[in-house]
Structure formats: C-alpha cells, structure tokens
C-alpha cells in the first residue's frame, strides 16, 4: 500500500512539474511581439467611457451566446479533432492574377481582393487597405492555419503608399503582425476600433497615425469624403483574454459611391441599421466563409449574407473571408457556391474576382468567372 501511495505521489508531482513548465513556456512565448499589447493609461481611460464597455470587456449591442443552442464547446472540440470534414482545404492551386498596384492610375476607382478579407481599394483619389494578411499563417503558432497554395501572392513590397489602413478587429486573420510592421512606413493613417491602437503603438506606429473610434463615429477625410464606423456582432482578442478591444464594421462614403465592409460577425440588426442610415449601398463587402451553425452568432452563414445584402439595400455584393485559410469545417468552396446560387436567385449582382484581379468599381456590368469550379 505504501508503494502505491508513493507511485500516486510521484505521478502527481510529475504532473505538477509538467503543468509548471507549460505555464512558464506559455508565459514567455506570449511575450513575443506578435501578441500585441493590451490598452492601458489614457487609452484605457477612454475605453472605459464607452457605453459598450462594461466589467472590463466590450459587449455586443445584443447579448447572445457565442455557441448556438443545441451545441457545446466540448462537442465542437470533439467534432474538430475526431470527425471527418472533407475538402476543407483545396488540393489544387488557387488561381490568381498578380496585378501591379503601382501601375493603376490614381484617378481609377478599383478594388483588388487578396483572399480572405484583405482588400485594396482606390476610390476618388484615396488608397485604402483593409485587413491585410500577407503571412503564410493566420496564427502566431507555427502549426496554425496555412494559406492555400497560390493564394498568398502579395507581400507588403507590392503595396503602394496607403492613405488609410482600416482594421476591423484584432484577430490574427485580420490583424497580422508581420504584415502591418512591414507596411509601417507606407501607411499614413490607421483607422481601428477602440484599444486596437495599443497593438500598433507597441509595433512602432506613432500615435499621430492612429485613429481609434467607437461605434457610430466618423472620420472626415475631405469635405465630401467620410468613413463611418458601425457595429458588428463579433468578439476580439489575441491572447488569453478577450474583448479588450472593439470590433468594427465600416461605411466608406466618397463623392462617387458608398462601400460597406462588414468585418467579421454574425447576422443581427446592425445590417438593417446601416441600411436605414446609409442605404442604398453601392458595394457591400460581407463576410462569407469560415462559418458553422454552432457559432452562427459570430460568423454569417451564406443565407445570412443574402439577408444582410437585402438589409443594406446593396446594389452589389463582394463575399470575403474565404479562399485562403481554413478556419471552419465546411468544404473550402462551399461559401462561394452557396452565395452564388442565393444571389442569383434573388437577382443581386455578385462580384467574384480571382485573387489579384481588378474590380472596376465604376463598371457595373463587369463579368467575373466562377473560378472555384473544377478546383479540387
């Protein structure tokens, strides 16, 4: 019996040592710069004045659980680890076109999609870059989600001077440390949600470049050029603690058109609110991919994208958040297949450019291929 208790004691001590080692390794690993910094000082004081910030966290307009009714975190972990989910990543290369952005005349109104949610917009003389991620992985971990073959053709060196870098939130697939550091000298201004500026300052961006906003605020670019901030239903976080920074959607209103960018988020009344205030929207860039019914509250399903487009009174839709990283359990091309059929049945123009292909924003009848068809 004494020997048995000795074995139990030694096993327990060994487990404690392993846990302690893991804790120390995690502590030092998370002190690496890619994890960013939490808001503090005057930045935190301003955050605490926001009506959306309570008990040390930001909150959505309408509170609802992240995991949908009928699902559980344990069940989702089990499904991810032990169930088969076919075709979540393509076997073939993703087709693309390497457009030289430096050669695009500044008076041309264009958009170039880089895969996932990253977009370059040149609109009425301003260059805007949205959520750029040019790293191989959408994660600080070396085994995190890797970019599909052929999808990661752009680097920071391919990007011209940017007037406004717009960041929707600080998740790794939208705010990439390596990318924004490489872009630092090319970016004139950064527009982001409250608290996100702490990351940028930590990464060497001067305070005067940072424009941090709450929901329902505006940035006046020129007398008739404004970028509005708006809510979305999502969350944020880069470390072990979440919701310390604010997640956003945006409306870019230039002299010639209105563009809506959803950021990440599940369907809620914020789309109808934006449609009522700003609609009709000329182009709605809406998250459509890396979804699951289990977390529908924080990521749109394709049918939610359709309803969002209707709420926004969108004249055309560009679906994003797909075709580069696998963060969900659905087939990699399912988001495009479904939204194509849904918008076709509802007579809503859908923009489906290849990565790097120029979208001419003034040409309403530009045609796009269903480039995903036939790719395994």
TrEMBL record:
- Keyword Magnesium annotated: no
- Transmembrane residues, as ranges? 12-30
Which Pfam families does this chain map to? Lactamase_B_2 (PF12706)
Signal peptide (residue range): none
Whether Membrane counts among this entry's keywords is yes
Q: Which UniProt keywords apply?
A: Hydrolase, Membrane, Transmembrane, Transmembrane helix
The source's superkingdom equals Bacteria
Q: What Gene3D superfamilies has UniProt attached to this entry?
A: Ribonuclease Z/Hydroxyacylglutathione hydrolase-like
Residue limits of the Metallo-beta-lactamase domain? 127-321
In its UniProt record, a GO molecular function of this protein is: N-acylphosphatidylethanolamine-specific phospholipase D activity
Do you know which InterPro entries this protein is assigned to? Metallo-B-lactamas, NAPE-PLD, RibonucZ/Hydroxyglut_hydro
Q: Which GO terms describe its cellular component?
A: cytoplasm
Give the PANTHER family listed for this entry: N-ACYL-PHOSPHATIDYLETHANOLAMINE-HYDROLYZING PHOSPHOLIPASE D
| Protein name listed in UniProt | MBL fold metallo-hydrolase
Lineage, please? Answer: Bacteria, Pseudomonadati, Bacteroidota, Sphingobacteriia, Sphingobacteriales
